[in-house]
User: What shape does this take?
Amino acid sequence: MQKIILLALCATLAACAARSNVKLADPQATKMAPHVGQVCMLRSPLPEGVKHKVLGNINSSKQTYGSVNELLPLMAADARAIGADTVINLNTSQKMGAWAWARPVGTGVAVKLEDKGSFNCASSGGELR
Assistant: This one.
């Protein structure tokens, strides 16, 4: 009986954690090397003329109550893992879920800039993570 209660408690706690995943734009393409640098989180598209390659879509969520700020580090880590240096069209919000009236969710497009020098995250309204 104690094992069942412990297992139920572990499953409940695991459901509380925030999650993030990536759907690659082209799973057959050569993978970019992961990096440990900062990632620009940008709520808009890139400014016109900034050349980039779309690597994938990032989706993040939490099943229970929380802040969308809990998702941003996870999304940045996913972007780093696939070699992206910017997440564009970042959209975070609260949605109704099975376990919470308002749970955080987030989406964005992970991109690799062709020339990092041609883009300034802060002046474009982005945030480095």
Observations:
- The beta strands are 18-24, 40-41, 52-62, 86-95, 103-113, 127-128.
- The mean pLDDT is 86.
